[in-house]
Amino acid sequence: MPSIPPTPPVPHADGSIQLVTIEGTGLGPYAALPVTFLRPDDTACLFTRATAAQIAADAARDDLGMS
Predict the structure, then answer these.
(1) pLDDT band at 65 (very low <50, low <70, confident <90, very high)
(2) Which of 28, 46, 63, 67 could form a disulfide with 33 if both were Cys (CB 3.0 to 4.6 A apart)?
């Protein structure tokens, strides 16, 4: 039986791009589109593929232990 793909998150209502950093590090800022269905402290962000690759490279370079 095929699986149903997850529904993508709903972008922030006003479509505003925000700059985010990785908390507790000097990494960032990265351009992000916040999603609205979560509490402000837990808001997930959408990134372009290029930005996600840059975040991963920065985290690996600084040995943050993230995967």
Answers:
(1) low
(2) 46
